[in-house]
Amino acid sequence: MKLRSLASVAPALLASFLLTNSLSAQNTSLLGKVEIDGSSTVYPISEAAASGFTKDFPNVKVNVGVSGTGGGFKRFTIGQTDISDASRPIKAKEFSAAKDSGIRFYELPVAYDGLTLVVHKSNDWVDHLTVDEIKKIFTTEGAAKTWAEVRQGWPKNPIKIFAPGTDSGTFDYFKEVVAGEGSLRWDMSTSEDDNVLVTGVSGSPNAIGFFGVAYYEENKDKLKSVAIVNPELNEPVSPTAQTIENGTYAPFSRPLFIYVNAQSFRRPEVKRFVAYYLLKAPELASKTGYVALPKTVYAQAMNHCRGGKVGTHYLTDEMEKRSGPVTELYTPATLVD
Fold first, then answer.
1. Cα 333 vs. chain centroid, distance in angstroms?
2. Residue 181 and residue 299 in one domain
């Protein structure tokens, strides 16, 4: 089935999958527990999904933890959780660990995020940053100690840096984009809790930090987002729903995922929760400060679940990393199990 056709039947397909039996009957009879852990970036979406689902199905307990993308995959790949929240695709070593444990999984994109750089609200000199200037601040090679070292004319105030912890998928994504094969500096204040980063930046006039756009939207009264110069357009672009979706907020637009244990998916409570999640994902993404994916992607995700299509689209058969827009990569042709 072509993606366009999938998009046209997506709402009906999802609703049918969710409501195999009458909803009222399931309200009273569906029992069990769904265990989720992983990304702090994806947490607000999963928590919102859990909250809505348990209102409809009060006898199902949904636990949502926050141990970072890497920490979540450590638990997921040994069968400790049913669902792993991830702000980046699964890595080759995590894929191998899952395979060694006999864990097969569904890879389901749920939203777009724009990794957002923020400074203190009173900062009146940083209006935008180029990727090269970001490298000066965050990499071991650049390691700027003052703002004056980043751009001529900026104050000689010392830079205070706040960043996600190394178990975070946001850290991994930022490192890949900014440092490549190099390293991020070691003297940053780090935390797996994005709220700690918000507190750090908002309490330090010379600070800079980064996290998912939703945490900025929640705290925009005390933080200032920094426009990023798009390398191709050579123009500063701020993180908005439109620029994140159309990709002009480059290079920091990215998809967010949930990974579902295929064995767990056979349990009625997990199957219904995942169906609910995908059905509500566009609405939940918007409500939590993220951006909905195209309908074709959600339809393809549910088609994977219905058809038992497990594996990842982000690794090749040789376990090399595969990159590209989610709309191009997330097709049956790229699936590797």
1. 23
2. no
Helix 68-76, helix 92-100: angle, nearest 10: 20
Instruction: Say if residue 253's pLDDT is above 80.
Output: yes
- Compute φ and ψ for 267, nearest 5 degrees: -75, 135
% the chain with pLDDT above 90: 88
Our CA angle for 292, 297, 303, nearest 5°, is: 135
Tell me if 128 sits within 8 A of 115, measured CB to CB.
no
pLDDT tier, 324 (very low <50, low <70, confident <90, very high otherwise): confident
Percent share of the chain, pLDDT over 70: 92
Q: Supply 198's token pair.
A: 């918000």
DSSP 218-248: HTTTTEEE-EEEETTTTEEE---HHHHHHT-
State whether 215 and 328 are in the same domain. no
Residue 108: partners with Cβ closer than 8 Å, 6 or more residues away: 257, 258, 259, 260, 274, 278, 301, 304, 305
Average pLDDT over residues 18-32: 62
* Number of neighbours of residue 12 by Cβ within 10 angstroms: 9
Spatial separation of the C-alpha atoms in residues 316 and 335, rounded to whole Å: 8
Rounded to an integer, what distance in angstroms lies between the CA atom of residue 196 and that of residue 103? 33
Give per-residue burial for 221-233: e unless 16+ CB within 10 Å, then b: eebbbbbbbbeee
The answer to whether residues 121 and 238 belong to one domain is yes
Q: Which residue is associated with the tokens 């199902």?
A: 60
List pLDDT tens digits, range 120-141: 999 999 999 999 999 999 999 9
121/221 Cα distance (integer angstroms) = 8
DSSP string, 89-119: PPPHHHHHHHHHTT--EEEEEEEEEE-EEEE
How does pLDDT run across 58-78, given as a tens digit for each residue?
Answer: 999 999 999 999 999 999 999
Residue whose structure tokens are 């203190």:
120
Domain residues for the domain of 274 are 3-112+254-334
pLDDT higher than threshold 60 for residue 1: no
Q: Are residues 165 and 276 in the same domain?
A: no
pTM of the model: 0.86
